[in-house]
Write a structure and sequence with these properties.
single chain; about 130 residues; mainly alpha; 2 helices; about 90% helix
């Protein structure tokens, strides 16, 4: 066996092998840079995916809270309607309550007046006797 057949335009014959090696080194460096950038891109995509998942959970929670608030709003409207009915009933009975209050307050003042008269009478009678 002899020497391998080398084509005439091969860089080994023309002495351009060093230039090819330099070019290959540049390609290898660029591939390494691309690997690093792809690693960064994968990391950022993972972060974005986690954010999207969190966002979907948050969106679901907001939807649930909105539904709960709407339910509370309906409940409050129902309570408001019942309160309005009760208030209307109390307002119809109010003249009687106002009259009762007036009589109770008048009775308390009358009782206070009787007590004051009794204390004054006792004091005056005691002063004469003593």
């Amino acid at each position: 066996m002899g020497e391998p057949h080398i084509p005439p335009d091969c860089p080994v014959r023309s002495g351009e092998i060093a230039e090819l090696r330099q070019h290959v080194r540049g390609v290898v460096e660029r591939v390494d840079e691309l690997r690093a950038q792809i690693g960064n891109l994968v990391h950022e995509l993972q972060k974005l995916t986690r954010l999207e998942i969190d966002h979907s959970y948050t969106r679901a929670e907001v939807t649930q809270l909105t539904a709960a608030i709407d339910g509370l709003r309906v409940d409050i409207k129902g309570l408001d309607a019942r309160l309005e009915t009760r208030l209307a009933a109390i307002e119809r009975e109010m003249p009687g309550l106002v009259d009762l209050r007036r009589r109770v307050v008048g009775g308390i003042w009358s009782l206070a007046g009787v007590i004051v008269v009794a204390v004054l009478s006792y004091t005056l009678l005691r002063g004469r006797v003593g």
